Amino acid sequence: MSVNMRRLNAVTTRAEQRRQTEMRILQAARELFGEHGFDRTTVRMVASRAGSDAGLVMRYFGSKEQLFAQAAAIPVEGPIEGSPLQIAEQLTAALSEKLTAEPAAALAALRAMFSHPEAAEEVRKAMTAQQRQVAEQLPGEDALVRSGVIGALTLGLVISRHLVKLDGLDAGAEELMAIAGPLIEELVAGP
Amino acid sequence: MSVNMRRLNAVTTRAEQRRQTEMRILQAARELFGEHGFDRTTVRMVASRAGSDAGLVMRYFGSKEQLFAQAAAIPVEGPIEGSPLQIAEQLTAALSEKLTAEPAAALAALRAMFSHPEAAEEVRKAMTAQQRQVAEQLPGEDALVRSGVIGALTLGLVISRHLVKLDGLDAGAEELMAIAGPLIEELVAGP
DNA sequence: AGTTTCAGTCTACAGTTGTTGACTGAAACC
DNA sequence: GGTTTCAGTCAACAACTGTAGACTGAAACT
Question: Which chain A residues have a beta carbon less than 8 Å from that of B165?
Answer without folding.
Answer: 124
